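Handoff note, outgoing to incoming analyst
You'll be picking up this chain. Sequence as last confirmed:
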Amino acid sequence: MNSSITDKKRRVYAAMVMAQDDAVGALMAKLAELQLEEKTLVCFISDNGGPTGYMSNGSSNGALRGGKFNVYEGGILVPFVLRWKGTLPAGRDYDQPVISLDLAATAFALADAKPVKPLDGVNLIPYLRGEISGAPHEALSWRSGGGVLYAVRGGPMKLVRRKDGKLELYDLGADIGEQHDLAAAKPDEVKRLEALRVKWDSELVPPLFPPLVHEPDGDGPLGNLLPKKQ
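Most recent structure output, in case you need it:
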């Protein structure tokens, strides 16, 4: 571990990231050794943003608001890297919103297989190769906290539904830190995104995790949500 990092949690976290980096490097080297790079789609993605505040493990979400288990960008905006030598262009940033659910749809399409049930994701390869233009999704939606927190993003606009039912609207193109709530100024946009959220939620099974209760400030670790006491 790097002794120059004085915070113990941060130092341990940095060591874990370095170990993961070494492991990914070893995997990539083995693919090259076996001459499988052009036959292998490599996916690297985090499942959620880092926990912060009293639940912090030393991670940092930078300028993003919130963290693990809430639906602000600190909880859902994560690294997402795809590599397929000879098929995907190298060193390219893709700016349209995508989601981890797209990986399953991509895998099914590449295997020329059909899922038993319809998938929310889409095959990303034609988009990444420039064969299809435009955004892969009209909107992306999230649900957390036992079904008390929601978010829906359409283009740069994102609607957040808090546990108390309050709706907040953010322009992620200009405000990635979600500091300026535009809900009062753009009621039509709120109505549009909320309708998309309601339709999406109606298609889901009930949450499997128990409802959570809100702590006073609402933006911290776990969305400052804790399980209800029995």
